[in-house]
Design goal:
The structure holds two protein chains of two kinds. Chain A is mainly beta. Chain A is built from no helices and twelve strands. Helix content of chain A is 0%, strand content 50%. Chain A is globular and about 40 Å long. By secondary structure, chain B is mostly beta strands. Chain B contains no helices and eleven strands. In chain B, the strands form two sheets. In chain B, strands 2, 4, 5, 6, 9, 10 and 11 form a seven-stranded mixed sheet that branches. Chain B is globular. The relative contact order of chain B is 0.33. The chains are: A mainly beta, B mainly beta. Chains A and B meet through strand 5, strand 6 and strand 11 of A and strand 4, strand 5, strand 9 and strand 10 of B.
Amino acid sequence: GNSVTQMEGPVTLSEEAFLTINCTYTATGYPSLFWYVQYPGEGLQLLLKATKADDKGSNKGFEATYRKETTSFHLEKGSVQVSDSAVYFCALSEDSWGKFQFGAGTQVVVTP
Amino acid sequence: KAGVTQTPRYLIKTRGQQVTLSCSPISGHRSVSWYQQTPGQGLQFLFEYFSETQRNKGNFPGRFSGRQFSNSRSEMNVSTLELGDSALYLCASSSGTDTQYFGPGTRLTVL
């Protein structure tokens, strides 16, 4: 079956540091890939997505590239802010409607 | 457009009781999915409804059930609550563009 593996947290960084969160997946077909972010006490917000190989998703300074050869979708941001402190989830979907497969989530803590 | 709304936001129940949670999707979205989020198990898919029909189901016992109304609003029900049912229950809606939009969740505590 499908699965998503992402690096364990917490990841603690200083403001303006570079952030990378690794995500790899296994899937039988050609999934769409997503990063969602969850702030304390809230639901998940879509951060970015990519629907096919070599696509790059980007939003709010975050980027991730769909790498089919390495089955990866690593999240990066060049200069983090305290407001980026949250839990980040990598996810995949193999159909247009149905269920997502989520990774375990990576907590990111950014200190001033 | 208004986002996905879930009610209530917080619930406290005791073991053995049942509970009903409600989700209103984004206007025009016909697919509604439900997830359970716990610290130990992470995000787990419960079920997905489209046009009042359950299309996908996760690996949860029959105590967990749901339905969808003609206006796409959805409810999920958990009967005979157990302590382990304490979780954040998230609803997500989709228009079929492969992206799901999540509500803020309902925090259920079972005592």
